[in-house]
Each structure stands twice: as C-alpha cells, then as structure tokens.
Specification:
469 residues; alpha+beta; 7-stranded antiparallel sheet; globular
C-alpha cells in the first residue's frame, strides 16, 4: 500500500539465529534482514556472539548499503547473531539510535533488537535516570535493555521475566548473550514473531518470509506472552504471568506491513488481501471500465476485486522500483519528493477510462489526493476509490507513527467529505467486521484501535516522547 508508505510508518524487523557450531551466522542474518527490509529502511544492524564477546556493526541506510562485503567480513564467525532493520517510532532517526542495542552489564555482553513501541517508555526512563542509569540513545529499546540488565541478577532470562511486567505497549524482541538466544512477544501478541529451523540451527524472525529467505522451515509462531530460550540444551518455553485471554494482533500487519508471502499467526497475508478485494467488489461495486491497484501491495486486493466484479485488472500506475518506500523518509517534504519520482500514471491504459483504484488505507490523504490528480491528468474520466480497511480515525501509540487525530483525513469527516477532499468520484471502505473476516484463519484477536479507538493499552506517554535531539 503506497498510500500508507508516504503517510504513516511503522516499524522494525528483527532476526536471530542460534547455531550448533561457529559459522558465518552474520551472513545468514544479513539474508534474513534483506527479506525484512520492507519493515524498516532507515538503519540496519547485526551483532554476533563470539568467544564470550559480542561484535556489532550497524549504520544508516538499507541492508546492502550498511552491509557491504567488506563490512560483513569484519564480523567474525560465531554461533549466535541478532539483526535489526529500523524505522523510528520512538527516538530520532540517526546512527546513535540504530539497533541492536549492545552493552556489557550484569549478564555480561548482551544485545537486544526490538520491534514495537512502549507507551510508558518515558516514565520508565525517568525512573531509571533517578536511580543513576545512563542512556546513550533516545529509543525505548535501550530502556528495555537497561531494565532487563538491572533486574537480571546476572541471569538474562531472570532479567527478562522480571522486566516484562514493567513494559506497556507492543514488543517483539530477540535478545542474546554469549551463550543463548531469547525471543519474547508481548502479552497481547501485537507484533509478529516466529520460529524456524535450519538443519540443527534455530532461527527467529519477524515474519515467515525471512525464514524462507535463509532456507529455514517454519516451526511455529511465538505465542503472545511467551519467552523462548534457545541454548546448548535445546529450546525452552516460558510464559509470562497474567497473559490476557485474548490476543490483540495489529491488524495492519495483514492490511499492509507484512510481506504478502508471509504467514502470520496461521493466516496467509496474500489470502487476506485478496479476500479484502473480493469483499470490496461484493459490497461496494462501481460502474467502471477497469480496476487497478496502487503498487505494489494493493495489487493483490485489486486482483481479488477484478475476480468478483468481472472488470479487467489493468496497471494504471508505473512504479520506479529503484526508489525506496516513500514512507521511510522522516520529513514530509522528502516523502512527497520521493513519490514524484517513484510513480507515474500509464496514460495509454487509462485515458478515457473509468477506473476503480484499490488501496490498502487512506491515512493523512496527501498521497492519495496526488494519485487521483495524477490519474485525472493522464486522462481517466472517473476515479472510484475502494479501500481495503476502515477509515483511520484514531491515532496509534503502539508502533505506527500517527500520534495525533489531527494528522488523519478521516478525523471529524464523513465518507462523502473525505471523498470530496481526495477529488475522487466515489469512496468506499471495508468495515471493521469485514476486515476482520479476511483474517479469520488466524484464530487470534486483533487490535483495531486506529479504526475504533479500542486499544489494549492506554497511552501514558503519547504526548511525552523522550527525545534528546
């Protein structure tokens, strides 16, 4: 969904590997991060455990920009590695805030990589500073690492068990010491995390597509509230206390964030998106000549719409695939500039045509407004928007950067008013119930807070993001 790409941003991808022997675990991790690049394009990092030490390399940019062959060669062979790709949610976009977070403390050397966002990170940080903690970054991930270390009594697992009840918000973690790899998923399971096997090795990843990329077989998803420990004696599962009866997986993973070839909590992302398109055609048909998707992720839903409606699927927008996702630009002006060189209308396909345009969401509306204008200037006689999610009316504080209602085009507006603002001929959204039905095979509960205002956690720090920049 390129509408969301320039309008909201989440998130991060994490990867970890535990090997039974010293080998090039950094290379495996690098391949895994390539597959997770869609989850974060600001920075990348890899840490490797070697001879009771942890060696880390990280930097700003895409995975291949940060990890050239020479940089990868600086990382030693080892038996454990963790990796991270980042888009900032809490903390500035700069090299200091790149992950993994690595330091030496009570547990010896440790490294932590985090996908998610804590709602009480500022409060925890202030408490820790009052107890003389020193922070090197402005990210909530370091707050988590400091909490784990301070409560560990020298044992990493003990520290994690004691620290997790302090954390409010979303988190999927990979944490390593010199002798173990640990995966942690928050009690509501808001962010995805899964386990794979690669020969005798164990792999942890944000999405199953990363397992596929390194040749690993999917084993299972990490359960909400589960702490999975991998060490020389095997895999061990520990559950946090007071795990809620119903999970609250972020439904935007299926709408957009996850790669469409991933399976998240038992549900195929591809199948969910195609079903969304089918439902749009069933409940919100349009008198039109063709259907198109905003590339790339909305194309799956557009094919579903074409299948049910009988309209031909036609490419209306050409995409420059050598331009990164526009949503990763930290500055709005930069995001808009990226869009103009990223996408262009295919005049020969749409001139004089009535177009049904499918997209995953409309959040701030800036990009969609420009796309509609682009299609009209290329000769489209009508543009009918069909959106694979409900109207986004509430801010999110659990890892998606839309922190105020004023940023949202649907805030205080009717569907008709939104349509007029975007310059479209018609606009229809899936309902919350229809969207949830597309993910029915997941067998989990969902967070739909950005649509309904019903979140698993309140935001105690929503207007108090700690930033030192």
């Amino acid at each position: 969904m390129d509408e969301i790409q320039s309008e909201i941003h989440e998130e991060c991808g994490v990867f970890g590997v535990y090997s039974q022997e010293n080998r090039d675990v950094a290379v495996t991790t690098c391949y895994g991060l390539y597959a997770l690049q869609h989850r974060g394009q600001e920075s990348a990092g890899i840490a490797v455990a070697y001879a009771d030490r942890i060696v880390c390399r990280k930097g700003m940019g895409l995975v291949p920009e940060v990890f050239s062959q020479s940089v990868l060669g600086e990382l030693p062979e080892g038996d454990i590695a963790v990796g991270h790709v980042r888009y900032s949610t809490t903390g500035a976009s700069n090299p200091v805030n790149a992950q993994p977070v690595v330091f030496t403390g009570k547990c010896g050397a440790m490294a932590l990589a985090h996908n998610g966002n804590l709602t009480n990170a500022g409060e925890l940080r202030r408490q820790m500073i009052a107890r003389n903690a020193v922070f090197q970054t402005t990210i909530d991930s370091e707050v988590m690492a400091v909490a784990v270390n301070s409560l560990s009594d020298g044992d990493l697992l003990t520290g994690i068990k004691r620290a997790c009840p302090l954390f409010k918000g979303s988190y999927a973690l990979v944490v390593m010491s010199a002798d173990k790899l640990i995966a942690v998923r928050d009690p509501f399971g808001i962010r995805p995390l899964c386990i794979g096997s690669l020969a005798d090795d164990v792999v942890i990843a944000s999405e199953s597509c990363a397992l596929d990329a390194v040749g690993a077989s999917f084993v299972r998803d990490v359960k909400p509230g589960e702490i999975v420990v991998v060490d020389s004696s095997g895999i061990h599962s520990h559950m946090m206390e007071n795990v809620p009866a119903e999970s609250r997986m972020c439904i935007f993973e299926y709408v957009y964030f996850a790669r469409h070839d991933s399976v998240v909590d038992g549900c195929s992302v591809y199948a969910a998106r195609r079903e969304a398109g089918r439902l749009l055609a069933k409940y919100f048909p349009a008198d039109a000549d063709m259907v198109a998707g905003v590339p790339d992720s909305a194309n799956v839903a557009a094919h579903g719409y074409a299948e049910v409606s009988g309209l031909p699927f036609v490419e209306a927008l050409a995409k420059n695939r050598y331009v990164g996702r526009t949503f990763i630009q930290p500055d709005q002006r930069q995001r808009e500039s990226s869009l103009t060189i990223k996408m262009n209308a295919l005049r020969a396909n749409i001139a004089g045509k009535r177009v049904v345009l499918i997209d995953d969401s409309v959040v701030r509306g800036t990009t969609m407004r420009r796309i509609v204008k682009m299609l009209r200037e290329a000769g489209a006689s009508q543009v009918h928007l069909r959106i694979c999610s409900p109207a986004v009316r509430h801010p999110c504080h659990l890892g998606i950067d839309m922190q105020t209602s004023g940023q949202l085009i649907a805030n205080g507006k009717s569907e008709e008013q939104i349509c007029e603002s975007l310059g479209a001929d018609s606009l229809k959204y899936l309902t919350v119930e229809q969207l949830i039905s597309t993910c029915a095979s997941a067998g989990v509960g969902f967070c739909t807070g950005c649509f309904t205002g019903d979140y698993p956690y309140p935001s105690s720090d929503s207007d108090d993001k700690f930033r030192l920049e």
